[in-house]
Design brief:
The complex is a heterodimer of chains A (about 525) and B (about 350).
Chain A: H1 3-27, H2 35-38, E1 45-46, H3 48-51, E2 53-60, H4 62-83, E3 88-94, E4 98-103, H5 109-119, E5 123-131, E6 134-141, H6 143-168, E7 174-178, E8 182-188, H7 193-201, E9 206-210, H8 217-221, E10 229-236, E11 243-250, E12 255-256, E13 260-267, E14 274-280, H9 282-294, E15 300-304, E16 307-310, E17 322-325, H10 331-343, E18 350-358, H11 360-413, E19 417-418, H12 420-449, H13 454-486, H14 489-523
Helix pairs in contact in A: 1-11, 1-14, 4-6, 6-7, 6-10, 11-12, 11-14, 12-13, 12-14, 13-14
Chain B: H1 18-39, H2 46-49, E1 51-58, H3 64-71, E2 80-86, E3 89-96, H4 106-118, E4 123-131, H5 133-163, H6 166-185, H7 190-207, H8 211-233, H9 240-269, H10 276-308, H11 311-338, H12 347-360
Antiparallel strand pairs in B: 1-3, 1-4, 2-3
Classes of the chains: A alpha+beta (about 525), B alpha+beta (about 350).
Amino acid sequence: MSKSLRWRGILVLIVVVVALVYLTPSISKTLPPWWPSILPEDKIHLGLDLKGGMHLVLEVQAQKAVESHLEGMVEDIKYGLRKAKIRYEQLKTSGSDRIGLTLIRGEDRRAVEGMVADNFPDLTVESGSFVGGDLKLELVLSQRAQQHIKRMAVDQAVETITNRIDQFGVAEPDIRPQGRDRILVQLPGIKDPQRAIDIIGKTARLEFKLVDEENSLEEALKGNIPPGDEILYEIKGMPGSQTRIPFLLKKRAALTGEYLTDARVMIDSQFSEPYVSLSFDSRGARLFERITAANIKKRLAIVLDDVVNSAPVIQDRIPGGRAQITGRFTMEEARDLAIVLRAGALPAPVKVIEERTVGPSLGKDSIDKGLKSMIIGGLIVILFMVFYYRVAGILADVALLLNIVFIAAGLAMFGATLTLPGIAGIILTIGMAVDANVLVFERIREELRLGKTPRAAVDGGYSKALVTILDANITTLIAALVLFQFGTGPVKGFAVTLSIGIVASLFTAVFVTRVIFDYLIIERGMSKISI
Amino acid sequence: MSMEFIKPNINIDFIGRRKAALFVSGALILLTILLLIVRGGPNYGVDFAGGILIQVRFNHPTTPDEIRAALAPIALEDSIIQEFEEKGRLEYLIRVNRTDIELSGLSDKAESSLGSVFGQENVEVRRVEMVGPKVGKDLREKALFAIFYALLFMVIYISGRFEHKWTMSIIMAASLALGVYIISALGMSIIWLIGVAMFIAFGLCWFLRLQYALGAIVALFHDVCLTIGAFALTNREVTLPIVAALLTIVGYSLNDTIVIFDRIRENHRRSRGRNFDQVINQSINETLSRTILTSATTLIVVIALLILGGGVIHDFAFALSVGIVAGTYSTIYVASPILLIWEGQSREGGVATVKRRGRGG
């Protein structure tokens, strides 16, 4: 056998064997135990559109995190001012990035500047305008600090959501930040999408706030809310016939969910209703004990995401750091609430801005239909090639089948995801892969018509068609690569299969068929080509 | 004896019929543009317009009117409801075009509304796609840039590859990038952007006399235009996968064009005094067998996908089918005749092009 032909043959064999090795885990149900230790065991990943599941894009309202950071700073500044004995008229956030401070004595400005510079490096003191004798200052949060808070908010949200999903129990979730303020969540095989959205999207900010019983709720409802207070509602009843009960609460939370160590579902022994039992860490427990001791016979509201859950009267000092959230929960609701409380609050609210859900039955239908189209379309093409080009057609068909094997192996090897448009991409490649062979075969026929020997005709056919084949495939490859860059999910899957298909078809249609042709002509001395 | 659909000595006068063909193509493109103007742009799907799409299957037959009535309590009675058959059972696509309302959670409400009217166990929601207005806008932009970059790279490749003028192709790329930068800075819409990019590409090809590039781009434009026209005509929605299909058509159409152009250059080098139009005609005839075979095999599989692939992939397969037919036609009747554009002019012009090509080949 000629040396070059042997080497080419060996190369083809090696490539085929490697492809089959990569493909085996996806095809066979059970692998021998020694397989994973030395050979790849990754299966072809199926996209959500084939497996069924949910794709969500969340937008983190990171500005809200900046605002609540400012709220927290107000408290710290208050403390600082008191310590430095600086008297002020008003101190509160104004706008989304600054705190307004009205000083009673203008000469305190230097002292404020000193205190801010020492303790709050992210703030700068701006514009001193006198309003009726008072000096009005603005403490502005730097752009850098804002960016940092926003970035932290997104990172923390990703972590919290990951925790929640882990506890909710989803196999192979994919949660990652996307762009500046978005989070991509992919949950394969989810059964109850709405429930998952509720769990992911709940801010779960738990606060304990004292009810203001010194001021009148009626007055407050008319719009005269006392400073440092706010009105929040408790919602009772089923959707449709809800009643909203207003509460006048101290704005400053006495205790927050930060101190929670655990939240779990318990069953009330009296009414056999589920409730969520909370445990605080030692700091939280001490705080809780102090608050309850100082406010006996007063009401303490449990507020979840700005909705009052309940406002029981404090009967006695409560040591040990335990509390419970009751309500007309179903078992499922109680479980979900426990999950979100355990995983912690989101640093800022999130909003679902894109949702794509595919039911498992539709995904299965799509696979069945995709495979069916592939088999039927492929069979027609295969028969057609044999019918039209005889023996040469069989070579083209071998190339075609190898091409499909290579695409599948390529998907497994690169850990790429197969989507429905991806299957369409494979089908399209089947149609287009024979093109290279058609180009070559037509050239060989032309050469034969000129009276050349089979060997010369094959030589001429391949070399003349090669430039054209390369040109033609490069343009399609450009389209595929651009698609890969811009595409999301399913479209990306299409670009991947198309790209692998193009490269694989160059190898199979140009290289592999040539090896077989050469073998038939040189080694077997075939004197006539059936083409 | 080998099988042949096309006899080797075939000689159809394609070029002689170029006026009629250009008229037909021109009319079809004009029709598409008119249709798009009347309809106020392409019919964007949820991906680009924002909104909600819900695919539902019912256990027993219903009518779109009944579904609409069931959706009335949540104020979605103005939804577009489309019926299609899947495995012998009727399924419905409910499409909410509004983006002014809160979209998240809406599909859940729709599901429970349908459930309360038709019975919870009789309704199966098989697919939900919700795209917020912001995401829709982002995706539109992304699709635009994808189309633009695909065009850009291909124009660079063709002008470089065929004319052997890589400097010119770089000039082309820079001008296109600049033009698009200006347009996007002015905040114009996607359609305008692509229109202007095409116009710049045409103009530059004309000005720089890149006839092969011009032929290829006009053919591309022709194919994409006709596919969009077919979508507008059949009231189909343009979604993300359709943009993918359009880009694939672009690749396929070029693929086809390049095969013939390669042959034309090869024959032209050996032509010795024969008219260019004869050379082109000969080249088309020589490659005719391949053109038809490849189109046939590709069309076979795509039609298999169209018939058997199911509702989700149906429009995608439809776009590819139209594109492949248009691409095959345009290679022969649009791209090739355009090479003659400077041929009928002054003698010097003709000689100059021959010389240039001689150096390049």
